[in-house]
Amino acid sequence: MSDTPLEIGPDPTLLLVDDDEPFLRRLERAMEKRGFDVQAAGSVAEGIAKATARPPAYAVVDLRLEDGNGLDVVERLREKRPDARIVVLTGYGAIATAVAAVKIGATDYLSKPADANDVMQALLAKGDDLPPPPENPMSADRVRWEHIQRVYELCDRNVSETARRLNMHRRTLQRILAKRSPR
User: Fold this and answer.
1) Does the predicted TM-score (pTM) go above 0.90?
2) Which regions in the chain score pLDDT beneath 70?
3) Which residue spans of the chain are classified as CATH 3.40.50.2300?
4) Which letter, b or e, does each residue of 60-90 get, where b requires 16 or more Cβ atoms within 10 Å of its Cβ?
5) Which of 10, 79, 106, 151 has a CB 3.0–4.6 Å from the CB of 101, allowing a cystine?
């Protein structure tokens, strides 16, 4: 990575698409402080509408949204603005989804929780420069715990269904859920 400061460029427009409202608002404020002209959307439909009406130079799109797949927003934005730099965010760091995101036009792929500095590095990285590794990456235990919590919430907090989907014994899952989150 070069030592030159990151520059936004002449067009500072940024579209953020995420259905996690608190995360979306925090990231929106943080990116505005860094000089971006931010539009926020909480759904695939809203993201596509904003990408079509005013195609931004930059975009940060969550992969899984309540009303569909964030890759639909990436595709539409790529059609409207081929030079846009797009970062896909997800709570599900998987090789297959990363490959799919890059194939349809994403510039980079970050796992949640990503902070504004990680997003900024990914959006503004030049050429083949890779952003530096995160200063404080999540521990493997924390990643596992986050994944279990996410599946538990998606299963409407049903322990038996969550255990079945995670291929885990119900009692083991109950013990994990009863503990505090690892650091």
Assistant:
1) no
2) 1-6, 92-98, 126-138, 183
3) 13-124
4) bbbbbbeeebbbbbbebbbeebeebbbbbbb
5) 106
According to the CATH classification, is domain 140-178 in 1.10.1040.50? no
Helices 116-124 and 21-33, axial angle in degrees (round to 10): 60
